[in-house]
UniProtKB/TrEMBL annotation:
Signal peptide: none annotated. It comes from the Bacteria. It comes from Fulvimarina uroteuthidis. Residues 403-435 are annotated as: Disordered. InterPro entries: AcnA_IRP_Swivel, Acnase/IPM_dHydase_lsu_aba_1/3, Acoase/IPM_deHydtase_lsu_aba, Aconitase/3IPM_dehydase_swvl, Aconitase/IRP2, Aconitase_4Fe-4S_BS, Aconitase_4Fe-4S_dom, AconitaseA/IPMdHydase_ssu_swvl. Keywords: 4Fe-4S, Iron, Iron-sulfur, Lyase, Metal-binding. It catalyses: (2S,3R)-3-hydroxybutane-1,2,3-tricarboxylate = 2-methyl-cis-aconitate + H2O; citrate = D-threo-isocitrate. Catalyzes the isomerization of citrate to isocitrate via cis-aconitate. PROSITE patterns: ACONITASE_1, ACONITASE_2. This is Aconitate hydratase. Its EC number is 4.2.1.3. Belongs to the aconitase/IPM isomerase family.
Length: 921
């Protein structure tokens, strides 16, 4: 920015290896009026530098900067709002396609507004990694990888053509082709720089590498001291178009680590323990920063594993400061020598380098863990924070089974911790729990039966663990030892290995472990995000049929980070997160009823029992292999041509120039209706009059419930649409793959098979009652009917509405269905801001303890909210509710449009409209 007040006189030059870098010196800023900032948490030093560098007197003022220094006096209380500008944006293809669709639509719209479409480009660097489209259709064979890649290109040709066009049409936009790796691992191993640089006016400025990503696990890179977190596609688009992200200076919870992990435990056991502790503590909307002597006993990959799961523990990020391990990792992964020298010099100059003996920062609050107390663990059956010690896994599953099969429940998404939601110990089974536990049902054409608790999916998958050589080598060693003893995987288990990058394959092959994994059925199935997002592929038909016919509770064990109900696979009702070596062990055991700490996993060639301890590798064994096989050259070689792609990618024909040549026949990519009839000036906001209720929802409705995700059902609005466009059900693909087509996506909004609209008690799935007709119908059909009748809509919800991953379609689908407002007890941070970004008003009940249930709403009421034309951020307003009998009640509600920027977005009809008007002007 040309206009730069530099109120704290801290713009200086740093010389590294004979090259000058402009930087904003925190030590000078401290001398010139920002007292005490040396004791700020490292993560807040990153935010402070961002403000000093971007001070312009308008979006960033002197007062904003002083507020960060005042944070120390205020004992770390959050509150002051700042405008933050990340260095770059990271996307994956599911969320990236709609962002590029919106960019392309904005180019068309600038033409309509009489401006130059060339103006529409990302203003900060954007990297899009295609990693969410690979599905595990083929597994357990030598050629599984090739076959899955062929199927992926077959299904996704239209999207890939579009992304390839985008990579050529837009400046500042790079695409990492399919089959390369998971975006978070590619980020950790290659894209991230820890200190970023920018050339401008003949000078090079150095500043901390920061980013926002369209995937909630963007947080993984905080393990490399890169401050980053997941945002909705909507905020990512804003950041990419140069809009600052408005955020509160957060509270920062210090998490102190002491000691070291005991023999036999893994980074996964540690992260499941940390997740449980932080969930219990309550860190939603806060930063977590790790400190203490225990950091020196974790590898950088261990740190990345912990940072990865910030969305599961609920924090905005889990940050690790720069130290000698950061430098060593940049070295080991083939970063440029100059960059590594800059990272060290810059971090030391800024007081951002941690050494043993560095004074602890001041935190809002702290908690701690002695690493030596961590025990082998799983988490499940449906939430990542529900950790179970491995020794108790079998008995915990027994209890969970009764709950899933109709035991006493408190609710579907219990927010309580502990076992209160399971049946009381020693309680007799209710009559509706079948007595067939342990009974094996026939599987057509197979010599084996199938029972409750059988593990039908064992997947080494997802970004949490596949970036960590220690746990992957451990899995390889478990496979090797099991194979040597003649153990095999049970025939009903679908096994898969989907590493986060090609480097993993290279070191597993170099260590000669891949052949052992292959022998146990863990053949490479693809590089990308698979089981965790429901791309686990279908189970073999006979297995699926046996589960459905006998209403079995089948299980999955995966090394992922998400195990919400209905997410991994529609046939699997209990899902457990575990370390990669435990995934292999459970594939051999084949059932959650096996107590793998005590029971034999199987018999060796001579009929002797083999126990887990007989095939578990020692920490030393693992470390020796990692040291021998993971090399700098490997990273340099694998990432040398990272944007080039395989022959499939290179063969894609790109048409269209500055603007995209939309194909009306495409069922994947369509020009969205957001900008239809848009003028240079926004229309005035109108009050909500006599709106109908589209849905009444209980607590913890996730964005997975709201947003279209997973497979598309034949019978339902989205399936009907595709069939009417001559798409065969076998070619439906997933909602994620069709995210670039609003027609499919709006039909899938609120259509999750497990969502429960309380207007239709006892029914699961996306249905509602249309009023006044009283007809029951799919939510999409009701919304369209209301649209024809000119009736606005509202949604009511409970606590933590929109929890889980950020899903832009949870907000886009909501507005396209005609919903004007969502009234909840509380919102998840990202979903709330996404709703505002799409022009939907979020409200919370103003009175403590009030909810739609305490108001006795049934769903046949009419709702009016006045004063929208004159409202200000966080206003207290009123909703008038007219009941079916004509009586009315007025309820106090608080507007959760929190900032002036958000109000601008809302009054413009959404963030894209706001930006587009700015660009066109």
């Amino acid at each position: 920015m040309s206009h730069h007040p530099d109120s704290f006189k801290c713009r200086k030059t740093l010389d590294v290896g004979g090259k000058p870098y402009v930087y904003y010196d925190l030590k000078d800023a401290e001398k010139n009026g920002l007292e005490g900032i040396a004791r700020l948490p490292f993560s807040l030093k990153v935010l402070l530098e961002n403000l000093l560098r971007n001070e312009d007197g308008r979006t960033v003022t002197r007062d904003d900067i002083l507020a960060v220094a005042k944070w120390i006096e205020d004992k770390g209380k959050a509150g002051h709002e700042i405008a933050y500008r990340p260095a770059r944006v990271l996307m994956q293809d599911f969320t990236g396609v709609p962002a590029v669709v919106d960019l392309a639509a904005m180019r068309d719209a600038t033409k309509q507004l009489g401006a130059d479409p060339k103006k529409v480009n990302p203003l900060v660097p954007v990297d899009l990694v295609i990693d969410h489209s690979v599905m595990v259709d083929y597994f357990g064979q030598k050629d599984s990888f090739e076959k899955n890649v062929d199927a992926e290109y077959g299904r996704n040709g239209e999207r890939y053509t579009f992304l390839r066009w985008g990579s050529e049409a837009f400046q500042n936009f790079r695409v990492v082709p399919p089959g390369t790796g998971i975006c978070h691992q590619v980020n950790l191993e290659y894209l991230a720089q820890t200190v970023w640089t920018r050339e401008e006016n003949g000078e090079t400025t150095a500043y901390p590498d920061t980013l926002v990503g369209t995937d909630s696990h963007t947080t993984m890179v905080n393990g490399l001291s890169v401050l980053g977190w997941g945002v909705g596609g909507i905020e990512a688009e804003a950041a990419m178009l140069g809009q600052p992200i408005s955020m509160m200076i957060p509270e920062v919870i210090g998490f102190k680590l002491d000691g070291k992990l005991p023999e036999g435990t893994t980074a996964t056991d540690l992260v499941l323990t940390v997740t449980q502790m932080l969930r219990k503590k309550g860190v939603v909307g806060k930063f977590v920063e790790f400190y203490g002597p225990g950091l020196s006993n974790l590898t950088l990959e261990d740190q990345a594993t912990i940072a990865n799961m910030a969305p599961e523990y609920g924090a905005t990020c889990g940050f690790f400061p720069v130290d000698k391990d950061t430098i060593a990792y940049l070295e080991a992964t083939g970063r440029e020598k100059d960059r590594i020298a800059l990272v060290e010099a810059y971090s030391r100059a800024q007081g951002m380098y941690r050494e043993d003996g560095t004074e602890d920062p001041i935190f809002t609050d702290t908690l701690g863990l002695d690493l030596s107390t961590v025990v082998p663990s799983l988490a499940g059956p449906k939430r990542p924070q529900d950790r179970v010690a491995l020794t108790e896994a079998a008995s915990a599953f027994h209890k969970a089974l009764h709950e899933i099969r109709g035991g006493r429940k408190t609710d579907d998404n219990p927010t309580s911790t502990g076992d209160s939601r399971y049946m009381d110990e020693g309680a007799t089974l209710p009559n509706d729990v079948p007595s067939d536990v342990g009974y094996r049902h026939d599987v057509e054409g197979a010599a084996h039966g199938l029972s409750h608790g059988d593990v039908v999916i064992a997947a080494i998958t997802s970004c949490t663990n596949t970036s960590n050589p220690n746990v992957l080598v451990a899995a390889g060693l478990v496979a090797r030892k099991a194979h040597e003893k003649g153990l095999t995987v049970k025939p009903w288990v679908k096994t898969s290995l989907a590493p986060g990058s090609q480097v993993v394959t290279e070191y597993l092959e170099k260590a000669d472990l891949q052949k052992d994994l292959d022998a146990m059925g863990f053949n490479l199935v693809g590089y990308g995000c698979t089981t965790c997002i429901g791309n686990s592929g279908p189970l073999p038909e006979p297995i699926s049929e046996a589960i459905t016919a006998n209403d079995l509770v089948a299980c999955s064990v995966l090394s992922g980070n998400r195990n919400f109900e209905g997410r991994v696979n529609p046939d699997v009702r209990a899902n457990y997160l575990a370390s990669p070596p435990l995934v292999v062990a459970y594939a051999i055991a084949g059932s959650m009823f096996v107590d793998i700490t005590k029971d034999p996993l199987g018999q060796d060639k001579d009929g002797n029992d083999v126990f887990l301890k007989d095939i578990w590798p020692s920490t030393q064994e693992i470390a020796d292999i990692v040291r021998k096989t993971v090399t700098r050259e490997m990273f340099e070689e694998r990432y040398a041509d990272v944007f080039k792609g395989d022959e499939h990618w290179q063969k894609i024909d790109v048409s269209g120039g500055l603007t995209y040549d939309w194909d009306d026949r495409s069922t994947y990519v369509q020009n969205p209706p957001y900008f239809e009839g848009m003028g240079q000036e926004p229309e005035p906001v109108t009050d909500i009059k006599e709106a109908r209720i589209l849905g009444l929802f209980a607590d913890s409705i996730t964005t997975d419930h709201i947003s279209p995700a997973g497979s598309i059902k034949k019978d339902g609005p989205a399936g009907d649409y595709l069939v009417s466009h001559q798409v065969r059900p076998i070619d439906f693909n997933s909602y994620g793959a069709r995210r670039g087509n609003h027609q499919v996506m709006m039909r899938g909004t609120f259509a999750n098979i497990r969502i429960k609209n309380q207007m239709v008690p006892g029914v699961e799935g996306g249905v509602t009652i249309h009023h006044p007709s009283g007809e029951q119908m799919p939510i999409y059909d009701a919304a369209m009917k209301y649209k024809d009748e000119g009736v606005p809509l509202v949604v009511f919800a409970g606590k933590e509405y929109g929890t889980g991953s950020s899903r832009d379609w949870a907000a886009k689908g909501t507005i396209l269905l005609g919903v004007r407002a969502v009234i909840a007890e509380s919102f998840e941070r990202i979903h709330r801001s996404n709703l505002v970004g799409m022009g939907v008003a979020p409200f919370v009940f103003a009175e403590e303890g009030q909810s739609w249930e305490t108001l006795g709403l049934k769903g046949d009421e009419k709702v009016s909210i006045e004063g929208l034309e004159t409202m200000k951020p966080r206003d207290l307003m009123e909703a008038r509710i007219e009941k079916a009998d004509g009586s009315t009640e007025t309820v106090k509600i608080k507007l959760r449009i929190d900032t002036a920027d958000e109000m601008d977005y809302y009054t413009n009809g959404g963030i894209l409209h706001y930006v587009l008007r700015q660009l066109a002007a």
